Structure formats: structure tokens, C-alpha cells
């Protein structure tokens, strides 16, 4: 017998003995899952039947006694807020022993916070965000499906075998691809591998022209291309790659993280079951089969395909049984979801961990301990071999498939793990890969001569050709500079010159101090009325009309950031010129992908669709760009003010040419004339021939702005006047805000320190410790606070103390006293400091104490309304020393034996009684009017025996006080209906 089997047999016998000793216990599973939708992945309808099958298997394998497990579930609706709320209900309403789920990483994260706080076992089957691997936070979470960053670790091992160090990434925006892509990028960076291009696309908008553009871009610096997308899009991409000559052997494509063959199928569609990825049942199948000969398909490993298919077919049948009792899946002809095997494994794993915890006498509700046990657990599950890493995450196994057989049927050529153990090989090849290269060897990740032939020597004749070509390019640049230098117009930014010496390649224009139009529009502190906006529009139209009538013909890069404003608030157009001069700027700006798409927000749709757009654009394209800028000026909300849409998605929708063209929103702003919105729509018309030219736009604006009068100097003076008023208002607002913040700061400071001390600190004076010859110190605490806390929740204790000390604070506000501090249920007050008040301090503390005792008699504990709260009060009079202590969090502290004695007066007193020392009694007698009785010789800790007194009242004090003769009969916490 294998050692591992012996261990499991011993654990099983111990678990039987444990169940015999302690009785047959039932364990309740709390399941979190979306009730509706997600049929192909992890929805309730196509998943929960797997739990029934798992429980049956657990009982058949005798891991737990029959009927040990029961299930309750709650609907997360796929929402993190709802998921967290349902987790709380499972915990406190159903008292579950474990939470399984929910699927979706973003729903799992708040649930993981809660289970970590509760230390409750938490197992999930689909939550692949690498964030959840942080066990300093999610310290009870176990995942039966490996996180997506593992595929990156596997690919690093795969690349090392073939000595590849660089690759391009081409992936869709779906959730699993975004996580998988992130995992690949992270692992490549950590292992000194390079992702040369990282292109993401929207699956719904993927057209042939877009794919051609992306693949051409990838081919410029990549020979190994990693693909991550849905099956249909993967086939389309490979067909386009084949048409571009990329499937002849010099490129390798890695299709990442498809599910095993039995998982390819959507449960609602059985037409393509078990078909190869190239199969589309159309006339392109033969071409696609040829294209896929350069594809390696990297998938999760699974169990025997037939066994898995049988499991998926049985899941809907189990949905008809208790506790689900639903025929929905059977009625719709569905099969199990692709993730349901991982749900099966989650329940099966929990049973194994329960078995181990009983044998080892570990609490089955100790989530951290169960996570530790999971690290040492492995079994053959419904999704394949199940092992866990040190984070309690499934350590997945991968299969690598190829399609080089004559029939195109995929075969597994390699198997491996992301993290090989015990010196095992990371990847083992079952078959030698068949390469389509001329020598039958793996293609290099960099061509022999480099991507631009930079690695191959050039003979002299070629050098001469290059020199002549360079001279020709230089002459072209000089000619372009001449054209730009000859341009002269008030609304065209002055061209200064250009630098063509590498690496300092640049074009120089005149500096405009107000910045770009985009900067001005985004600055809310700059107020623009319509007169101001009309002036800017007029400048822009005049400048573009001049460019279109010049030898430049068109601009090609019109956007609000290419319109600058000088010190006289005159708009000037910049970044114009021939492509020979500006190609450096085209290539250097917006180098990051998101920046590239943001720069295209002003580009006309017909230009976005071109494979090789004109270097200087078109006049119609400039008019479209003007329409977008007009929208920016009119509404000041940016070029495309659409929430939750990134520039890449916006550009895709504009390029696609939808039935209703996608354009910026027209806000219902009363300040914007209908004539302006009509002009916008004319300028960004889908058909370029329907757009007006700039001479027509100039006429249109002149006809619709006839009320605009005054010369340019009048307008400038008015602008400057408004600008000055705006600045004055702004300064006044900022000053007022500063004063308000100062008041808040002062209020906070006065709460931390006495006002006189705070004022001295504010002016920079040193506050020295000070001796006070005679002050009176008050201490109080709650009688039986420990018992009261044990009977209350933490929040109830906090609410009680907050209400009680709010009451105390209201009382002390009526007397000349200073609250020194509160620590837990202890409350310390002093009178006679920091302001000396002669001999009145004892009377102020005595009056305050009587008011506090009177108030306590009517104080109610909300969660214990039938209980009487009692406080114990001690007072002593004598000398103290006081001063500010600390720098980081300064406190005004009081020191001296008087403080200690007052504290002892309180601790040796009784509930609802005011215990005073002899010095306090003498001070009160000097004032007169107080009712004091002798308590006698009282042992005081640290002081020996002292003569102490009870203060029972004051002449003329009309509020209710406890009866001194009956107060000794009252226990620490009495019902409110007991008379005092």
C-alpha cells in the first residue's frame, strides 16, 4: 500500500472514532451564487446540481457519514454589495460552517474580507483575480480553480525551452483575458521576458480591417504572438493571419487558456461539441485548418473527456432533486456549465478537510487551520488532479495542443505545471512539435537579420543608396520647412524651425503663454461667456480656412490640444505641416496604447477605417475634427463625455459606422444656441461629402451671430475686466475657505488642550509645567462595567459610553471645570486649573458631581432598559503640577499625589455615592451649604487608613438624588423599577 493511502486510511479511522465519540454531527454549507444568467459559466441553473453529485460521491467514498452535509444558498445577483450582504445573512441567520463561492472575483473580494474577519472557512470555485492570493488579507480563502496569473508562470517555462525572450500580446477585453493578460505581463517582467506589443480589442467590433491593422503592427517586432479571446474571434484572427502570410512557419501563435475540449461548448448550444478550434462549418474550414498548424493551444488539463461529458450531462438531472427541486435546466435542454466541475471539487475538498480536522481535533470552523490543511491535500477531482500551492490556490496543470495532423484533429503534445514540485520537470513533451520552418526547428523570436535588417551587414553599393536616400530625405525636410516658414496668419502659430540631428528630432513653434485650448476648457476657474467662445471659434475657423487655401491643403491632426492661446487671448493653430517634417512627432507622442486611442478621438471615421491614412489627413476630416472641438468649446465636457467608456472603446464605435453614428452627447444647455448644435451635426456627418467647408462655416457663424458688435480692443478690455473680477471672486472664495478651515482647526485644538494653553502654543510660546497650590480632582467609573460589557456586544458598549459621556459633557459645560481625559469607563475632571478660581474649585466639582448623580438616575441603557446604571465618584483636593506632554499627539496632563488620592477615593467608594477626602470636606465647609456625612476610617490602597466622607447633597439643590439610607441596599446593576 502506498504511504499516502496509509495516511488517508488512518485519518479515516480516526474520523470514524471521532464521530463515534462525539456523535453524528451535521455541517451546513452556505452557497453564494447568482440565481439568473451566466448559464455557460457559473449560473445557478447549470451549476448547483454538481453539489448534489459531490455529496453523493462523498458518501459513496465514505469520507463523511451519510447526511452529514446540507446546503443553503443565497442569490448574489453578481453584485459585490449584494454578495457581502448575503454572506452576512448566511453567517448570522443560517449559522453556516463554510461559505462556498461566490463566483466573480469582484464579488468574492468583499466576501473574503468578511470570512477573514470571522475566521470562517471559505472555498470558491471561480475567482481568478491574482489579488485574492494575498493571504495577509484573504487568510481563509481556498480556490479550486487556479488564478489566471498561473498561465503566465507556465508560459515562462514554455518560452525557456525554445529560448524565446520576447512576444506580442493580442487579447480581447473579456474578464478572463484581462486577468490572464495581466498575469502574463507580470510574469514576463519578473523573468526578464519582453511583451513587445500589447494590443487589446473589443470582440464585438472586431472587423477584418482592424485585425489586419493589428496583426501588421504585431509583426513589426514580434514573431511569437500570444492570443487570448473567444473561440469565434480566434478563428477569425488566424484566417486574417493566413491571408497576410503569417502562417508559413516564421510566426508561432499561442492561444491561451481555452478550456479543455469538453468545455468548448456553451450549454445552450451543442452544435460544435468537441470540434477543433479551426472548425466553423463553412467554406473557410480548409484554410482555417492550414492556419492553425502554427497554433499551440494552451488549456487547463482535465479528467477523461468521456467521464467529464457524462458529468456535464448529469448536472441538469440533479437540479430536479432536493434541495433545488427545479426542472429549468432539463426543460431548456441545458448541460452543466463549464465551471461546474470546479464547484464539485470545492464541495469534495471541504469534506476531505472536515475529515482531517476531526482526526486532528481541529475546529472545523477555523478557516486558517483548514487553509493550512488544504496546502497538504491532493485528490483526483472532477476537473482533474487537484493540488494546492502555499496560498491555498489550485496549482493547475496545463495541456499544450497542436493541430499539425493531416486531419486537423488536435492532439496533446505537452503537459506541465506552473510550479513544478520536488525537482519535477515543468513541462514534459509527449510528442515532438512539428515546425513549419524550412529546417524543421523552432523559429527564433527575432529574425536572423532583425526586424529591419539591422543585424545584417550592408555592402558599399547599398550604403551609397542609403546615403542618396538620406540626402533626398534631407532635401524633403528642407522643402517642408520652407513651406511652413512661408505661412503667415494671425491665427496660425509661428513656425520657428526644426532639428534633424538624432536623437534630438523635434519641430519648434512659438510659445503661447495661456497654453492649449484643451487646458483652458478643462480649467473650471476660467469662466468663458459666449462672447469669449465666439471669439475663439472665429479664430479657429479663420486659421483653418487659411490652411485649406494654402499649399498645405489640410491639417490632419486637428484637436483642442493643437490649438494654443497667446497672452492676448488669440487662438492659434499649431502642429501643422507636411508629414516629412512631423513624422517624428507622430511616432513619439502618445506612445502608450491608451494615449494613442485618446489622440484618435478627433479623427474622422473614414480615416480610422483606412489601412494607410493620408499623412496630412483630408479637408473633410479637418471639418469633422472641428465639429468635435466645437462640442468641447460649447459644453466644456471633453471630446466624448461618456461615463465608463475608455478611448479605445469610443474609437471602435466611431470607426464601425453604426446605424446611428456614435458621436458626443448633446447636452441640454440653455446657453448653447440650436444653431451651434446644428453646426456640430453638420460637421461630424458620417458622409464626408455632406460636411461644409470652412468658408461655409465662417459664413454660417457670421449669419447666426449678428448681435456680436464692437472692435477687438473693446472685446479684449471686457475680457480682461471679467477676468479680473473672476480672480477677485476666486481670491475671496479661497480666503473664506481658509478662514473656515482655520475655525475647524481651532475647534479641534481647543478640544485637545485648554484654550489658554492652545493660544500660547499657536503663537509659538513655550508652555512650561505649572504648579497649582490647590485644585479639586474628580474621578468616576461605571460600577460593574466588566459584567455589563460581557452582556453586551462591542457596538452596544461603544454606544453606551458615547451616550453617557455626552451626558457628562453637557453637565460639565455648566461649571468652571476642565475635562482632563476619559479612559474606557473612567472619567477625570479638574477645577482650579489651568484657570485658577480661588477657593471655588471644590464647590464647582461638588455641584457638578451632584448633577451627574441626579442625571444617572434617569439614564437608560437602550439595550438593557430594565437595568439601572450606577457610577462611583471620588473627589480629593490638593496641589498638582500640570503641563503639555508629547509632540506627535500633545496632551495636557495633571500629575501629583492629589490625582492618585482622588483615584483611590473613587475606587474605594460605592455606586451612586460621592466619596470625598477630608481636605475636600474642609474646602466645602469653608464654602458652606453642602450636606456631608462621616464615613469613618477607610483603608485606602497605598495610603493606609484615611478619614473620608460622603457628600449627600446641598442646601437648595432641588433635583432628585439617591436616598443615602437605602443606597447600600442597591446592587451594582439593578432593575429600573427598584426605588432608590
UniProtKB/TrEMBL annotation:
<dbReference type="InterPro" id="IPR001170">
    <property type="entry name" value="ANPR/GUC"/>
</dbReference>
<keyword id="KW-0675">Receptor</keyword>
<keyword id="KW-0456">Lyase</keyword>
<dbReference type="GO" id="GO:0007168">
    <property type="term" value="P:receptor guanylyl cyclase signaling pathway"/>
</dbReference>
<dbReference type="Pfam" id="PF07701">
    <property type="entry name" value="HNOBA"/>
</dbReference>
<dbReference type="InterPro" id="IPR001828">
    <property type="entry name" value="ANF_lig-bd_rcpt"/>
</dbReference>
<dbReference type="InterPro" id="IPR018297">
    <property type="entry name" value="A/G_cyclase_CS"/>
</dbReference>
<keyword id="KW-1133">Transmembrane helix</keyword>
<keyword id="KW-0472">Membrane</keyword>
<dbReference type="InterPro" id="IPR029787">
    <property type="entry name" value="Nucleotide_cyclase"/>
</dbReference>
<dbReference type="InterPro" id="IPR001245">
    <property type="entry name" value="Ser-Thr/Tyr_kinase_cat_dom"/>
</dbReference>
<protein>
    <recommendedName>
        <fullName>Guanylate cyclase</fullName>
        <ecNumber>4.6.1.2</ecNumber>
    </recommendedName>
</protein>
<dbReference type="GO" id="GO:0005886">
    <property type="term" value="C:plasma membrane"/>
</dbReference>
<dbReference type="GO" id="GO:0004383">
    <property type="term" value="F:guanylate cyclase activity"/>
</dbReference>
<dbReference type="GO" id="GO:0004016">
    <property type="term" value="F:adenylate cyclase activity"/>
</dbReference>
<keyword id="KW-0812">Transmembrane</keyword>
<dbReference type="InterPro" id="IPR011645">
    <property type="entry name" value="HNOB_dom_associated"/>
</dbReference>
<dbReference type="GO" id="GO:0005524">
    <property type="term" value="F:ATP binding"/>
</dbReference>
<feature type="domain" description="Guanylate cyclase">
    <location>
        <begin position="776"/>
        <end position="906"/>
    </location>
</feature>
<dbReference type="Pfam" id="PF01094">
    <property type="entry name" value="ANF_receptor"/>
</dbReference>
<dbReference type="InterPro" id="IPR001054">
    <property type="entry name" value="A/G_cyclase"/>
</dbReference>
<keyword id="KW-0732">Signal</keyword>
<dbReference type="GO" id="GO:0004672">
    <property type="term" value="F:protein kinase activity"/>
</dbReference>
<keyword id="KW-0342">GTP-binding</keyword>
<dbReference type="InterPro" id="IPR050401">
    <property type="entry name" value="Cyclic_nucleotide_synthase"/>
</dbReference>
<dbReference type="GO" id="GO:0001653">
    <property type="term" value="F:peptide receptor activity"/>
</dbReference>
<keyword id="KW-0547">Nucleotide-binding</keyword>
<comment type="similarity">
    <text>Belongs to the adenylyl cyclase class-4/guanylyl cyclase family.</text>
</comment>
<keyword id="KW-0141">cGMP biosynthesis</keyword>
<dbReference type="Pfam" id="PF07714">
    <property type="entry name" value="PK_Tyr_Ser-Thr"/>
</dbReference>
<dbReference type="GO" id="GO:0005525">
    <property type="term" value="F:GTP binding"/>
</dbReference>
<dbReference type="InterPro" id="IPR000719">
    <property type="entry name" value="Prot_kinase_dom"/>
</dbReference>
<dbReference type="InterPro" id="IPR028082">
    <property type="entry name" value="Peripla_BP_I"/>
</dbReference>
<dbReference type="InterPro" id="IPR011009">
    <property type="entry name" value="Kinase-like_dom_sf"/>
</dbReference>
<dbReference type="Pfam" id="PF00211">
    <property type="entry name" value="Guanylate_cyc"/>
</dbReference>
<feature type="domain" description="Protein kinase">
    <location>
        <begin position="407"/>
        <end position="701"/>
    </location>
</feature>
<keyword id="KW-0325">Glycoprotein</keyword>
<feature type="transmembrane region" description="Helical">
    <location>
        <begin position="6"/>
        <end position="23"/>
    </location>
</feature>
<dbReference type="GO" id="GO:0035556">
    <property type="term" value="P:intracellular signal transduction"/>
</dbReference>
